[in-house]
Model the fold of this input.
Amino acid sequence: MTPITASRELQDALAGVKEKTEVRDTSGNLLGYFMPRQVEEELLYQYAEENFDPDEIQRLLSTQKDGFTIEQVMEHLRSLEKS
Done:
């Protein structure tokens, strides 16, 4: 992402924004969207709460078997290339 520095005028215009907002030029052309950081974080938390069940995560963690290290996986893949 490329950052831009907002002028004082733009900062003042965006200061009271509480939701995703269109940013337009003086001719009315859409430049893009602005979303305050707090709103973005709230949306991310809401998504996580809706899509991740803590009980299911605990169940999976308690039943999950030990995995393999990346080195073991790579060694196995190399052995397949030789066959």
Summary: Residues 37-51 form the longest helix (15 residues). The chain has four helices and two strands. The chain has one domain: 8-82.
